[in-house]
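R.M. (postdoc): so does anyone remember the format we settled on? I'll just put the structure tokens first.
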């Protein structure tokens, strides 16, 4: 779900490119794992990074709690700013859904 919503599987038309990253577990006795990460393509970069969406941060926070990650990290995530969609964007989304289901 997150993979596709964040641009996975969309090819060169997407603003993101997939990169492979190495993730090192807290438990150093376990081997690092490779994962897919996303990086903004050069043509879509802006001067300052915006905050992640509230939806995205909620997914990250829920995963951190589910995996029992360190409390200090979970607190950091909880304090990390997230961008709440404006009322205008919420209304546009609502009407898009209504329009889609009435066709």
């Amino acid at each position: 779900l997150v993979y596709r919503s964040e641009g996975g599987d969309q090819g060169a038309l997407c603003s993101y490119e997939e990169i492979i990253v190495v993730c090192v577990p807290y438990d150093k006795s376990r081997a690092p794992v490779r994962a897919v990460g996303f990086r903004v393509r050069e043509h879509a970069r802006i001067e300052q990074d915006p905050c992640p969406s509230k939806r995205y941060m909620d997914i990250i926070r829920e995963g951190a709690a589910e995996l029992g990650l360190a409390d200090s990290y979970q607190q950091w995530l909880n304090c990390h700013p997230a961008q709440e969609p404006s009322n205008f964007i919420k209304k546009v989304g609502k009407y898009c859904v209504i329009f889609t289901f009435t066709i």
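R.M.: ...and that's the designed sequence above, right after the tokens. Also worth knowing: The helical segments are 2-5, 54-66, 71-79, 87-102. The beta strands are 16-23, 33-40.
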